[in-house]
Amino acid sequence: ENKKIALVVKALGIGFFEAANKGAQEAAKELGDVEVIYTGPTTTTAEGQIEVINSLIAQKVDAIAVSANDTDALVPALKKAMERGIKVISWDSGVAKEGRLMHLNPSSSPLIGNMIIKLAADQLPDGGDVAVLSATATSTNQNVWIEEMKKVQGNYKGINVVATVYGDDLADKSYRETQGLIQSYPNLKAIIAPTSVGIVAAAQAVEDAGKVGQINVTGLGLPSEMAGHVKAGSSKSFAIWNPIDLGYSATMIAYDLIGGAEAKPGAELKMGRMGTVKLDDNNEGAMADPFVYDAKNVEEFAKIF
Amino acid sequence: MAKLLKNREILLVLAIIALVFAIALRFPGFVAPANLARVYNDTSILIILALGQMAVILTRCIDLSMAANLALCGMVAAMINAAFPGVPIPLVILAVVALGAALGSINGLLVWKLDIPPIVVTLGTLTIFRGMIFLLTNGAWINAHQMSDAFKALPRAPLIGFPVLSWLSIVAIAAVYILMTRTPVGRAFFAVGGNPHAAVYTGIDVGRTRFLAYCLSGGLAGLAGYLWVSRYAVAYVDIAAGFELDIIAACVIGGISIAGGIGSVGGAVLGSLFLGVIKNALPVINISPFAQLAISGTVIIIAVAVNARTEKRKGRVILKKAEAV
Amino acid sequence: MAELNLSPRVIPDRLQSRGSRALKSWESLLLVVAVLIFAINSFASPYFLDPWNLSDATFNFTEKAMIAFAMALVIIAGEIDLSVASIIALSSTAMGLAVTMGADTPMLVVVGLGTGLLCGAVNGLLITGLGLPSIVVTIGTMSLFRGLSFIILGDQAYTGYPASFAYFGQGYVWWVFSFEFALFAVFAVIYSVLLHKTNFGRAVYAIGNNQTAALFSGVRVGRVKFILFLLTGLMAGIASICLTSRLGSTRPSIALGVELEVVTMVVLGGVSILGGSGTIPGVVLAAFIMGMVTFGFGLLNVPGIVMSIFIGVLLISVIALPILWARARRRVAH
Amino acid sequence: MKPAVALEGISKSFPGVKALSDVSLALYPGSVTALIGENGAGKSTLVKILTGIYQPDGGTIRVDGEETHFPTALSAAHAGVTAIHQETVLFDELSVAENIFLGHAPRNRFGLIDWKKLNGNARDLLRRVGAEIDPTIRLRDLGIANKHMVAIARALSIDASVVIMDEPTAALSHKEIHELYELIDRLKADGKAILFISHKFDEIFRIADRYTVFRDGGMVGEGLISDVTQDQLVKMMVGRDVGQVFPKVDVAIGEPVLTVSGYRHPTEFEDINFELRRGEILGFYGLIGAGRSEFMQSLIGITRPSAGAIKLNGDVLVIRSPAEAIQAGIVYVPEERGRQGAIIGLPIFQNVTLPSLQKTSRAGFLKLANEFALAREYTQRLDLRAASLDQDVGTLSGGNQQKVVIAKWLATQPKVIILDEPTKGIDIGSKAAVHAFMSELAGQGLSVIMVSSEIPEIMGMADRVIVMREGRIAGRFERSELTAEKLVRAAAGIAEAA
Ligand SMILES: Nc1ncnc2c1ncn2[C@@H]1O[C@H](COP(=O)(O)OP(=O)(O)OP(=O)(O)O)[C@@H](O)[C@H]1O
Ligand SMILES: Nc1ncnc2c1ncn2[C@@H]1O[C@H](COP(=O)(O)OP(=O)(O)OP(=O)(O)O)[C@@H](O)[C@H]1O
Ligand SMILES: [Mg+2]
Ligand SMILES: [Mg+2]
């Protein structure tokens, strides 16, 4: 009998999650007795994810690995799943502690927070104004990263964060918000967009405004979506962890838990070729460092994800 | 000029001017001609869509599927371009305009031949069109690097000082204006919405007129689909999600009566510009992003209230004495 | 008198018996559809016919259906309320705010219902007081109400609802019957009686068919409409309590897009979007149909958007088929 | 003589009704044919078939001897058939000129509408029908009579050989009616074939050359007007003798019931004072647009007066809504049946009981048996023709709808009833029934206000008459001193001949 592991994503059709699914399928093949159910709502809403989770509970899957649209709202549904014997973990975007056995961070939030501001600062030896273009005001991970970024801001002399705006992960809104930033801050030197939708829109807006070379767009993005903008020069570099590895690792951890491993502070869970993850006091663990892409390597990765 | 614009429209023009100057007080750069041109350019797509919605609303119908139609056509345009980068862009545009009109004609046919209420039809096709994008692509995105440079460049290309996008919307305004004021079909839109019963007696085919209005709104949505996708250089299932409400709001602010029969091209354009100015201004005058939604809601409510006031029947005056006053 | 009415004609009360009319009604068509979907679901997935699974599935529609009952009345009266989802958000935000100020569960219920009623009153005043078209007003308040919760909450979330508050969205009355489902059933009965058995319900139909004539006939049109918007506000408040309790947290984006699903449910239930006709049993059936479709597709892991295509097609075809059928029959008859 | 249009064996059914069965009708150039029949006899249905709005189930239409079909209103117009319909079917939001030319507007050489020419042509046409209206103003700014003149101008904007008029004078007053007669004479002289539908016999005998009578969807007689008398026509129409149309009985008039003093409104009316006594029928006469309906509606709380007081049986009353008026025992039967009276979409019995639900229900819950009983009683007394009480009022003919509307307010058992044009558009048999009922009610002590623009009705039924002109009372007459001339003079504001 195959073990059923559900990979629940924020929304179907997002390149990042499609890549994670690739990794999950790779893990399933490697494990042999696992069937991965790749599912999620069509729009990034908590209610949509709850409906999906309810139908997974009904199907009596063995494990659910979820990237949550809302930290808290999924908790009751996931608790119910755990009561019915389903192993629940979160990955990428976490749920509150009561709603899962463990959470797999793609990387550690402090590392990411530091990375995004460092990417901007590296291009600005003399400092200057930078602005943040985030996703929705409610997305968990962006908010944590921005918080972490602000903690280490002091380490980068002359870097001045002038604004944080929200593009809601909508291309047109992000575009317009970027236009607004360019307007309001004539001395803007960099835009940090820690979201794969936002960074693309921001780069496009910078190109359309004729500001290539003056404003550098950086943050977190997918190589395939950013390759064109790196080539156009609107983005010098950006970072992302490898989503394939993330999907792979989440599946492996879920399998380990089904097999009887226990998720408790200090425990080490197996992640196949990615090694192991060590859980902290919050039952959270980090997979790996974010990886930086620039003109030298982006083309190569654009073919993969 | 005064003859061209009705009372309500003059009011709107004044409101827009006041708004622009209020913004300029906090951010002087906003009134720079280049910036105003940019705001217009940013509003062009909304204007094109509002023109189509206006025609539909005039016939006492509504098209909730416009944004979904836009998304589907935009996706198809992107797919054509990604698969056959060699196809000339005007041909791509022609194809999606035709596709949009065809999708609009589905709405039109259901309303015409089966007499299903428009709001139900377009509520249904709204989900169906979006779903079709998902079925076409399996949810995958089409990104900038998959589109040809020519595809992305067209709306931005400058032409006598303005981007082609702006010019396209100006052409659309002129064409729809002539259609509405100088052709029998355009007048039929007003007649059908003003009094569908009487339209039958006048020899106007009510269903067919509505069908044509839906074809127009569909075709314009198709055009907007290409423009949207090429401008933002990305296509996915959810582009312009919820935009149908902006389009309707623009029409309502522009004084187009939701009950049909009353409205004008000027109103649709001004209503769109009003929304466009607000949308563009909020980020630059540093209003909390969280307040934007509440502000646009309030604006819509004020706009209908004001419109209702100016539309309010003066009342038939019977007393001779009162007439003189 | 007598000599004038030489041949007073006796007009029968009814030509068709109530039974034969019920048989030809929309509701019986929906019932057939519902039974079909139930049968197909039972075949398609081994997990469908499980009491607990079916019970879980009811959460797909109970909250929306409760709003749909009030919405049905609003639509029958010829109006519409598109702001219900935003009222849910604002009520939920108000409850979250109350929690931070130390409110207990009964207080939270009062706050949730109160906010709903208040929003309903705002809609009602704008629509009946100023005489504005409801579709536009509620598009406006839809942005306004949700916008207010964004202003209050920003990027924060309210959590930390008291444990006893969880009962409304997660509690069970008896065996597999959840509190929400029981509430749904009770409201189904209340609204059926209100619409079909009372003077108020008759007034709603009269307004929907001819508002001016209803006014001349002594129907207090403004008051009835105002009450209807209060009711949708109240039901949205109740739905908000259930949903907030079920999620255990509040964010301003809660219940996004629910208004279209509610309207779809009402229309699928046979309520004429133009006003003047429709029944509550129809809406109840439509709620079950939509819930079962969502759940059935979910069990097969079909993406939500495919379900919405299905609902879209269902919506149009359920309305179109009887029309086509009648046409075909007329053609045969000729 | 060859008919301009001939209908042969035309049939038309609606679900549950056979509106026309095997009727034939011929219209001759230069001649006016009157089409008469009870409400629901099928007259308007025939008009709609002749103008391409309805398709007949069977039968043929011949124009100038050639068989034709009219699939749309446009094709009938092209074949030279034009009509003034029973309802004014125009567009409030469009200009007068466009209303006249919609669908056949003059175009320039690019195929675009030529507005200048359009306005010019409209001005000429309006002058021809004798209406001084600026063609560029919006239709909604016109009074009801002028709107009807626009409808007439529209009918004449099509160069037609056949002109149909379905109750054209129902919405017109004295002056316009005379202009219309002259217009018909001119059309006749031009060789047009005219079909004229009316319930008013004086009109028919004034202008018609031939007549055709319909009963229950079939043709029961035709011939030359000069060969028949009114009584013969009525008998053909109704199938029996009608008796008196104005069965006025003398009732002992009692004490004042309703006292209105100092009623005024900033723009609609002022200085309205009168008393209404028990058992009295008080007529309100005036030209259309004199402000009678506006004033009556302010009595029941539709519009708010700016000053004035009402006393009912000596007690001061404040009425803010029709509901309060009904509760107090004052009811108003409105003139616009379609908009204010009938609730199309609801069955007959629910229409009748709507204002009386308090009485038929218990604690706010409906009691259907009571409703049917009440509806049955009142509809039978008014001789309603319907298949069942559960039938949608929308499927009734205009006249029968009017009966349902009257029944609706009578069923509330009021103290004062205001009837606004109660017999507008209803046939002579029904008229007699309504009048008889009115008399009977007065006899039982009810007080009646009857607003009417028909002089015979006012003279036949009223105990006292108040004439209104331009929002003011322009004359008061006792029954004994009533003459048609006095009424017309007061209403038009022409000084009494010295
Ligand atoms: N659209 C319709 N649907 C159903 N029945 C109709 C329709 N139109 C007319 N009828 C029915 O057809 C019959 C003839 O109606 P029609 O309007 O022709 O009468 P009419 O002679 O013009 O009466 P009136 O003097 O009241 O205007 C009536 O019984 C009426 O109820
Ligand atoms: N300009 C107009 N626009 C719309 N409706 C009008 C207009 N003029 C008259 N009417 C209609 O005619 C009715 C006339 O009512 P009003 O009180 O002014 O006059 P009246 O003396 O009652 O004349 P009538 O013989 O028409 O009843 C109004 O209720 C309205 O329905
Ligand atoms: Mg008629
Ligand atoms: Mg009147």
UniProtKB/TrEMBL annotation, chain B:
Superkingdom, taxonomy of origin: Bacteria
TM segment ranges: 43-59, 90-112, 119-140, 160-180, 211-229, 258-278, 290-308
Keywords: Cell membrane, Membrane, Transmembrane, Transmembrane helix
Topology in membrane: Multi-pass membrane protein
Compartments, record wording: Cell membrane
Main localization category: membrane
CDD domains the UniProt entry points to: TM_PBP1_transp_AraH_like
InterPro entries, per database record: ABC_transp_permease
Pfam family, one: BPD_transp_2
Protein name as annotated: Rhamnose transport system permease protein
Organism of derivation: Rhizobium herbae
From TrEMBL, chain C:
Keywords per UniProt: Cell inner membrane, Cell membrane, Membrane, Transmembrane, Transmembrane helix, Transport
Entry's transmembrane regions: 28-49, 107-127, 134-152, 172-194, 226-248, 254-275, 282-299, 305-326
Superkingdom, natural source: Bacteria
UniProt-listed Pfam families: BPD_transp_2
Its membrane topology: Multi-pass membrane protein
Keyword Cell membrane recorded: yes
InterPro entries noted in UniProt: ABC_transp_permease (IPR001851)
Localization of this protein: Cell membrane
Main location: membrane
PANTHER family: ABC TRANSPORTER PERMEASE PROTEIN YPHD-RELATED-RELATED, AUTOINDUCER 2 IMPORT SYSTEM PERMEASE PROTEIN LSRD
Subunit structure and binding partners: The complex is composed of two ATP-binding proteins (LsrA), two transmembrane proteins (LsrC and LsrD) and a solute-binding protein (LsrB).
Function: Part of the ABC transporter complex LsrABCD involved in autoinducer 2 (AI-2) import. Probably responsible for the translocation of the substrate across the membrane.
Protein name: Autoinducer 2 import system permease protein LsrD
Organism: Rhizobium herbae
From TrEMBL, chain D:
Record's keyword terms, sorted: ATP-binding, Cell membrane, Membrane, Nucleotide-binding, Repeat, Sugar transport, Translocase, Transport
SMART domains named in the record: AAA
Superkingdom of the organism of origin: Bacteria
Domain ABC transporter: 5-241, 253-495
GO function terms (MF aspect): ATP binding
Matching PROSITE patterns: ABC_TRANSPORTER_1, ABC_TRANSPORTER_2
Similarity field: Belongs to the ABC transporter superfamily.
UniProt protein name: Rhamnose transport system ATP-binding protein
Organism of derivation: Rhizobium herbae
